[in-house]
TrEMBL record:
It comes from Alicyclobacillus ferrooxydans. PANTHER family: DNA HELICASE IV, UVRD / RECB / PCRA DNA HELICASE FAMILY MEMBER. The keyword Cytoplasm does not apply. GO terms for molecular function: 3'-5' DNA helicase activity; ATP binding; ATP hydrolysis activity; DNA binding. It comes from the Bacteria. The keyword ATP-binding applies. Gene3D superfamilies: P-loop containing nucleotide triphosphate hydrolases. InterPro entries: DNA_helicase_UvrD/REP, HelD_bacillota, P-loop_NTPase, UvrD-like_ATP-bd, UvrD-like_helicase_C. One of its GO terms (cellular component) is cytosol. Residues 212-620 form the UvrD-like helicase ATP-binding domain. This is Helicase.
Length: 788
């Protein structure tokens, strides 16, 4: 309901008043920033004047260092204030444009006072310091706005629950300090405003949804009780959006203790990372850390292998169906993803405690000075009850001691003598200083010369042994690749550890395949997580204890083994996991009944909470009605009522015609106001071809690969698996023929591809369309003929 003119004027006057105050504040803050800036310049300029530099003796040197440190602290304190003030200025500039987006009038029980609360991206207090002109959307009372229609309502305040009555709930669209629209709303937050927001063009960056957060999303955003939050929701139901708002909420709620760099988000690929990277800065917060799982694997694998990229793995699976070895690969991927394989790895680890360790021998100047066998013997001489990482620590100490003895053997060696001759005068000076410092000089010059010679020899040896010692400290003598390989090279080991029935039927072939790949120095993606797990268990896990919150987006693509690794890696972190089992496109998840069941088993019952989102906001009702029938279980997906054209299905006689149809479709779409048009292909190799063919037909387009970290508006050609998480105004599905999409896991790929569309969807195919489109009711699409 639109409010009347008088009220509108009053509201605009209030906006004007707030904007005036904000402008004043900006003015005074700017002055402060200038003041701090000139202080910083002064400190930098006079830095050395303020410091008394004197290195005459140790006391003076310590004094000098202390005074440098003190000056540096003053400087960094000023720099911090400058950064804070700068950040505040940015937020104020945003507030000035649009100071708030909502208002609630609330009367607490037994209180006659009716409080009007205006919600914006940040709080703003008037110059008296007592009056909140704008409340931060994350403040406890702001929750009322997202959770209740007018009527009885309550919210969780720091001291307990406050109940009362919500008399009014109003939404504003304010731009450049002018109210553009204003509505009093009922149950859902402003269908009208949501209509407007969702009807806009797709962006190459995700937007914040702060003014239209829905109740079910608010519950996720503000959940501070559970250690594991699982958010399962259909495509476009706002999972990622809720996650980003949740991070902003947590940074506000725990602002004294939680910093943005203590929050990590695992995202599916670099494109997605850049897609979501603007949300937090838009809300005035610093970005969290972002990573991808392959990135996390990189460091522990090191240079031992080239790790296969998950998208390479997927490309192989999607393009080599029916070829020899395909079924083995599939079975291997599935088995190695699961907790059964993790259990086998755990048993293997305990067995390694008694036998089977593989060590590399140590070489010095090209000669073996300690064999792998000797190291192994020493390792197994330690008590069995000591953990493997601790035994390795003892072993390292022992080896370092042996190296010292080895070094003394070379003191008089000819090669050392030769190298001493080549030393420069600095080295001699160093040896002299050392002996002098340690009081080794006597009156006997003959003896002194011998001592100098020995000190020089020691220097030469230290230098030569330094690399070896470093390698030993880093446990490089441990042959993890060989230890991992052994599990597959000797299948009898696994048969000793678990019953044959617990292994997959193809185990022998899987083992052969794994060994062949490892020997080629390639770590298949399915082996990367187990390999890193084994390595970290052996050497002592590299835990990251400073991280407090881990977010995993597109979590349906993670294997149970990966979840278990993440859980171990971040022992003090709470986990928020967001996913849609219907978009599980990795082969390891085929046939998985409940994608997140294994995950919840990692936490005690009371620590876990599952939220389900069924409303789909991204696509028009017509698109959702089409895409949900691609799934076997899509009935419960509920579209937001926003309308657009029905998806169109178009048949082509052959690929040549298909290409021309798609080019024609792009031309047609360009005449509308679309910012992004995506041609979604099944694989990267198909996308590469389409990209070139379209160019040959004179259609300008860009292609997206797994290395692309940002995309520009216009026409892009993209493989479906890279389009995860992002959205486009219009989607053209390049080829939805039965040859392309008919295997089980391809159903989800097709669904993922089609659900990227916000306003328009066009599905083209050659000859026979995918059987996954057979359940879509005829009324949900139009059949279109296109001219050749
Ligand atoms: N409460 C909301 N208000 C306005 N827009 C919303 C809201 N929730 C979601 N959206 C919009 O819906 C679209 C889809 O949201 P989002 O990408 O977060 O969904 P998702 O569940 O992560 O999707 P997918 O699983 O397909 O990646 C985005 O354009 C987002 O801005």
């Amino acid at each position: 309901m639109e409010t009347d003119k008088r009220e509108w004027n009053e509201e605009q006057e209030r906006v004007d008043g707030v904007v005036k105050e904000i402008t004043k504040r900006i003015g005074s803050l700017q002055k402060r920033v200038e003041g701090i800036q000139s202080d910083i310049v002064d400190i930098r300029r006079d830095f050395w004047d303020e410091v008394t530099v004197n290195f005459e003796d140790t006391f003076e040197a310590a004094e000098t260092m202390a005074s440098i440190r003190q000056q540096a602290e003053v400087l960094s304190e000023q720099e911090r204030s400058h950064q804070n003030a700068h950040q505040q200025l940015k937020t104020l500039a945003r507030l000035k444009q649009s100071p708030y987006f909502g208002r609630i009038d609330f009367r607490a029980e037994n209180d006659s006072f009716r409080e009007s609360v205006y919600l914006g991206i940040s709080s703003f207090v008037d110059s008296s310091g007592d009056n909140y002109m704008v409340h931060d959307w994350r403040a406890p009372i702001s929750s009322l706005y997202y959770d209740y229609p007018p009527g009885p309502a309550q919210y969780q305040a720091p001291d307990g629950v406050i109940s009362g009555t919500l008399d009014l709930k109003r939404q504003y669209l304010i731009r450049e300090s002018r109210i553009l629209s204003m509505f009093d709303t009922g149950v859902t937050i402003g269908d009208e405003i949501l209509q407007k927001v969702l009807g806009q063009q797709a962006d190459t960056h995700m937007k914040s949804i702060v003014s239209t957060i829905q109740r079910e999303q608010n519950a996720v955003i503000r959940d501070t009780r559970h250690r594991l939050l699982i958010v399962e929701g259909s495509a476009g139901s706002g999972k990622t959006s809720a996650a980003m708002q949740r991070i902003a909420f947590l940074l506000y709620r725990y602002r004294e203790h939680l910093k943005a760099n203590q929050v990590v988000m695992f995202s599916p690929n670099p494109l997605f990372s850049s897609y979501v990277a603007t949300v937090l800065p838009e809300l005035g917060e610093e970005n969290m850390q972002q990573t991808t799982f392959p990135e996390y694997l990189e460091r522990p694998v090191g240079r031992a292998f080239t790790v296969e990229d998950p998208f390479e793995q997927m490309e192989t699976i999607l393009t080599t169906s029916g070829e020899p070895g395909y079924e083995t690969r599939l079975a291997g991927i599935q088995y190695k993803a699961g907790l059964d394989f993790k259990a086998l790895c755990d048993k293997y680890l305990s067995w390694l405690g008694t036998d089977g360790f593989v060590f590399k021998g140590l070489k010095f100047r090209g000669k073996v000075i300690m064999t792998g066998k000797t190291i192994k013997r020493q390792f197994y001489s330690y008590d069995n009850s000591i953990s493997i990482p601790n035994r390795l620590r003892f072993l390292t100490e022992w080896i370092l001691e042996q190296l010292k003895t080895e070094a003394t053997r070379h003191l008089k060696a000819k090669w050392v003598e030769d190298e001493i001759e080549l030393l420069d005068s600095d080295a001699y000076q160093k040896a002299y200083n050392k002996l002098r410092r340690e009081g080794h000089y006597s009156d006997n010059s003959f003896e002194d010369a011998a001592k100098e010679r020995e000190a020089l020899a020691q220097m030469v040896l230290d230098d030569h042994f330094a690399r070896l010692r470093k390698a030993v400290k880093h446990l490089r003598f441990l042959d993890v690749p060989a230890i991992y390989r052994q599990l597959f090279a000797n299948p009898e080991i696994s048969l000793r550890l678990v019953k044959a029935a617990e292994l997959p039927a193809e185990w022998t072939e899987i083992c052969k395949y794994t060994v062949a790949r490892l020997d080629d120095k390639i770590l298949s993606y399915e082996d990367a997580t187990p390999y890193v797990y084994l390595k970290e268990q052996l050497t002592g896990i590299r835990q990251n204890t400073s991280i407090r919150h881990v977010f995993i987006d597109e979590a349906q693509d993670y294997s149970p083994f990966q979840f278990a690794s993440i859980r171990q890696l971040f022992p003090h972190a709470r986990l928020t996991v967001l996913g849609d089992p219907n978009q599980a496109i990795h082969v390891h998840s085929i046939g998985e009944a409940d994608a997140f069941e294994d995950l919840s088993s990692l936490y005690p019952d009371g620590d876990t909470k599952t939220y389900r989102f069924t409303k789909s906001y991204r696509s028009t009702e017509q698109i959702v009605e089409f895409t949900k029938h691609i799934l076997l279980n899509g009935q419960s997906i509920d579209p937001f009522h926003r309308h657009g054209p029905k998806p169109a299905l178009t048949r082509a006689e052959d690929r040549y015609e298909l290409m021309r149809q798609v080019a024609g479709r792009i031309d047609e779409l360009k005449t509308r106001k679309h910012r992004t048009i995506a041609v979604v292909c099944k694989t990267q190799s198909e996308a590469d071809e389409v990209h070139l063919d379209l160019r040959a037909l004179g259609v300008e387009n860009e292609t997206v690969t797994r290395h692309t970290s940002a995309y520009r508006p216009g026409v892009i050609v993209i493989p479906a698996y890279l389009a995860k998480g992002v959205e486009f105004d219009a989607v053209i599905l390049f080829d939805a023929s039965d040859k392309q999409y008919s295997r089980d896991h391809e159903r989800k790929l097709l669904y993922t591809a089609c659900t990227r569309a916000m306003h328009e969807l066009y599905v083209h195919y050659v000859q026979v369309r995918s059987p996954f489109l057979d359940n879509v009711p005829e009324a949900a699409y139009v059949l279109e003929e296109m001219q050749r």
